Amino acid sequence: MTDGLEFNVLAVDCEARAGRLVTAHGGIDTPCFMPVGTSATVKAMTPEMLVKAGAQMVLGNTYHLMLRPGAETVKQMGGLHRLMNWPHPILTDSGGYQIHSLARLRKLNENGVTFKSHIDGSLHQLTPESCMETQSLLGTDIAMALDECTGYPADVEVAEESMNLTTKWALRCREAFVSSPGRGVFGIVQGGMYAHLRQESAAALKKIGFDGYAVGGLSVGESRSERVEMTQVTSSLLPMEKPRYLMGVGKPLDIIDAVECGIDMFDCVLPTRSGRNGQAFTQWGVVNLRNARHKTDQQPLDSHCPCPTCTGYCRAYLHHLVKAREILGAMLLTWHNLYYYQDLMKRLRNAVIGGTFAAVADELRARFSWV
User: Which of 218, 266, 293, 317 has the fewest Cβ atoms surrounding its Cβ within 10 A?
Assistant: First the structure.
């Protein structure tokens, strides 16, 4: 394998794509969904359960891991893959979203960001160079460039200033990143809800040159129509031969919309967080296992789902686990939700390959419009 990542588009139907992304720790079929493992674990899941659910890659977070257990510690333990017993691909977010979500704890300037740890209040600095070094210590397959996630709403002047900062940081990240076989770095397109800023950002990142490109600054409070418009605008500007990643999205309907725009990669906490809160995705809608009507229901969660939760346990037992706050309830519902998401990705992938994407997308939209 040569330095960087290998990515091949295997089929295109309308704008939707099916492909294969190869990293140092294996391949990923796209479009794909990455379960979120912020702190080197997907909550309530073991690596074996993730594999059985169909996950091929997980996401970790640079900000959280640099605070605890620390990047040097991870390196000493043999890297993130070995530490968490996950021998498959890992993508690490740069910490840019935390610049947005933890704004009250940080100070931002052109050099980088200084923030107080949300754990103990200690001061830390994150620069484009240290962001790349930290992700190298972690041993991630795909590193994300440091960016400033533009808030919503933001006027054009604020969005432009944020986008320009992200572009400057992107160049420094690209220069600091050390290439190796099967390992790559993605740039992140910003620009708020302004198409001309998105165009400017994408052009600048392409000129710098990255192994892949992400659409950032969405799923931060905007409407579905705004999200679709910005995704469509940005995706159309990105190189055909490189993977495209829509960060932090999302709901099944959002994923269908984005695949139709040509997006290849997704992550979101929704399926795991919902599982821990007693909610499950099924073909009939979101089922809230806290509801009393499930107390004596002997039906499976979803009779059409082949996951271990649906084939082994009834709704009454799941209701009991959730009400009793038993850890097993969170595990079983999270497992089911990840099966659900991976099955959705498989159906979209197969539809692209089979040339039936438009029909399948319409069918799925009608079924999933409730989430």
Answer: 293
